[in-house]
Every structure is written in C-alpha cells, then in structure tokens.
Write a structure and sequence with these properties.
This protein is α/β, with parallel strands linked by helices. It is built from eleven helices and eleven strands. The protein binds iron/sulfur cluster (2 copies).
C-alpha cells in the first residue's frame, strides 16, 4: 500500500439494499485486522452508521451556506431574479428583491450578476458534522438539516473535514457510506474513490437502479475498480441478469449474501453482525469480501 489511504465507497442505486450494513461490517473487519480506518457517513439525509455501530457522537461543526443579503445600493432592477435558477427571489420593481431562503441553494449567481454591489454575503446553517469512535474506527458523520435542499454541500463538508484529518492522522483506509441514488451527493461522495462497491438486491427495481449507479461510476475520473454485492440474494427465485450487467460495466460480482436472521438481529441491536455473530455463514460471507478486497488494496 502507498502512503495515501485507499478509499472504498459503498453505494447503491436504491435505498434499503443494506449498503450501510456492508460498509460497517467491512470497516469492522479491516479495523480488526489492524488497519487504521476512517469511516465517513455521507448519507446525509439519513445518516445511521453511528446508530448501527452504537457509537456516541459529538458535534464538531455546523455546515453553513451562502445566502444573499441586499443592501441599500439595490435599485430593484431584477437582474438577480433572472439569474436565480431555483426561483428563490421575487422581484419587486424599484425595491429590494424578496428572498425565499428555503429555496436558495447558495450558488451566488445573484451576487455575480448584480452590477450595483447590492448583495453582501450572509450565511444559513444547512447541517452539521459530528465525529465518534467505535471498534477502533474513527467516524465522521454529515447530517443535513431537515427541509434543506443542499445535501451535496454537507457531503462536500464531510470530505473536506476528512481531508484535514488526513494531515493529522495516518489512515490506511477510508470507507465511505454514500446516499442511495445516482445524483449530485453521490458524485461528491464517490470523488477520488479507488474501489466502489454497489450493493443491490435481486429485484427488478434493484437491477434497474444498479445499472444507473454502475453507469455513473464509469464517468468518475478516479476510474475506481467497480464491484457488486448482491444482498438478500435468495429474496426471490426470479433470476436477474447480474452477470450480463457486471460484464457490460466492467464490474465484478464480489459476493452474494443470502437473507439472514443474524443480520436482522444485529441491525436491531445496533451491533455489526461480525461482532455479534462471528461464527456464522453470513460472517463468513463478509470475511470472504474482506479477503478479496485486502488482496487488491493499492
Ligand atoms: S441585481 Fe442588484 S440592484 Fe438589481 S435587484 Fe438584484 S440586488 Fe438589486
Ligand atoms: S444564491 Fe443562487 S439560489 Fe440563492 S438567491 Fe442567489 S441566485 Fe438564487
């Protein structure tokens, strides 16, 4: 391994496939094998890795975003409103625009187009970062404030905070739990990943969303190794074309994990299944994934 930590991102085109379970059990295994692991919970709409690890968190900082404040230079020309894509401004002729802060995405387009120096920066809190530790794993969690639209900014704040931590602590591995889907948050969360694991399930929805996330991975500039984990692999008897999909997107099928009561119980108790049921078939599945990943670490 080189000096930079390897980044393994665990993602999934669809919610509820068990990606956080995969991410925390892999983090647990790497930590147990003496890797210094930093875990980033970038599923900022619903961060639950700390709950599933039963880890205490302390808040470290609030995440703020730009909000325009209009000063007395404003002549009410309306140019800022025309530039505001999310329609967060209402033009009132010859008066300062009316701002709808909940619609503002902080893009600063209004400030850029205003030729009268009438917009000053203000801030609004859109989320927070917290940190904790469990099983030797350092955890950084991003959490979006309820009702805020700018989840990607909170993801970016998690990644920036993690980059700053790398200057202080030598980590072997960063494991990132992303949000489900194939949108802006995911792109920020996957940025720089060396390995991406897409967790899916054998249903038509799972297959459809898997293709979307695998497609997105092909556009990443870090050209990560792409792997698939089929979770709840015995959920249906209906065959899904996973082999063809893997071939098309140059991904490998890392594991098929059948449904297991042990996973349900460990999930309910907030303990990694590797900790609670180490000598079971499902734990062996995770051990196998760990060994395959360890063999390709860069
Ligand atoms: S562009 Fe500037 S001057 Fe014109 S309405 Fe907006 S803030 Fe006021
Ligand atoms: S920062 Fe962007 S979204 Fe917010 S008011 Fe200005 S133009 Fe609109």
């Amino acid at each position: 391994m080189n000096n930079k930590p390897t980044i393994i991102a665990v993602t999934g085109g669809k919610g509820g496939t068990g990606k956080t379970t995969v991410a925390i059990n892999l983090a647990y295994l790497f930590s147990k094998h003496n890797y210094k692991v930093l875990f980033l919970d970038c599923d900022v709409d619903a961060p639950n890795a700390a709950i599933l690890m039963n880890a205490d968190l302390e808040e470290i900082k609030q995440v703020e975003s730009f909000l325009p404040r209009f000063n007395d230079n404003c002549i009410g020309c309306g140019e800022c409103q025309k530039a505001c894509q999310p329609h967060a401004l209402l033009n009132i002729p010859k008066k300062k625009p009316l701002l709808f802060p909940e619609l503002c995405i902080g893009c600063k387009a209004c400030q850029i187009v205003c030729e009268h120096n009438a917009i000053e920066p203000d801030n609004k809190i859109i989320g927070k970062l917290s940190r904790g530790q469990k099983y030797g794993i350092d955890l950084i969690v991003g959490e979006l404030q309820i009702g805020e639209p700018k989840s990607a900014e909170v993801v970016r704040a998690v990644r920036e905070y993690a980059d700053a931590r790398l200057k202080e602590v030598k980590y072997d591995l960063i494991i990132i739990d992303t949000a489900p889907g194939a949108h802006c948050d995911i792109i920020h969360a996957l940025d720089g990943a060396n390995i991406v694991i897409s967790v899916t399930e054998p249903t038509p929805f799972g297959t459809h969303d898997l293709k979307r996330i695998l497609e997105l991975i092909t556009y990443l500039s870090s050209s990560p190794a792409s792997h698939i984990v089929i979770n709840r692999s015995d959920l249906t008897t209906q065959k899904q074309p996973f082999n063809e999909i893997a071939k098309k997107y140059q991904a490998s099928i890392l594991a098929e994990i059948p449904m297991s009561r042990e996973i349900q119980l460990s999930y309910a108790e907030g303990v990694p299944v590797m900790e609670k049921f180490p000598d079971t078939a499902v734990s062996q599945d995770f051990e196998d994934i760990f060994k395959k990943l360890e063999a390709v670490l860069i």
